[in-house]
Specification:
With 88 residues, the protein is mainly alpha-helical. It is 73% helix and 5% strand.
């Protein structure tokens, strides 16, 4: 039972960060959203992670959020499998 609590907590952290990534992407539609207090807070949490994926862009179109979400989900799945095997 304890293993499922740990995995559930870790999944909640991954899901919260994925939600921050989506909110960060949606903030680009509103010019003043990133300059607000919440926008600056989200930027400080998300941008260091997305900065690694910024090299994957085609002209003005960036895919860093999409690639970041995919990598985050792969890491989540891998960590879940590893924890399940180790703590079983």
């Amino acid at each position: 039972m304890f293993i499922y609590t740990i995995i559930s907590f870790i999944n909640s952290l991954f899901n919260a960060y994925a939600l921050l990534l989506i909110v960060y992407a949606l903030m680009s539609w509103f010019p003043t959203a990133r300059t607000s207090t919440i926008g600056q807070w989200i930027h400080r949490l998300v941008y260091p992670y997305l900065q690694f994926f910024e090299r994957f862009s085609i002209g003005p179109i960036g895919f860093s959020v999409i690639i970041g979400l995919l990598v985050l989900r792969l890491a989540q799945s891998g960590l879940n499998q590893l924890l399940f095997l180790l703590l079983r």
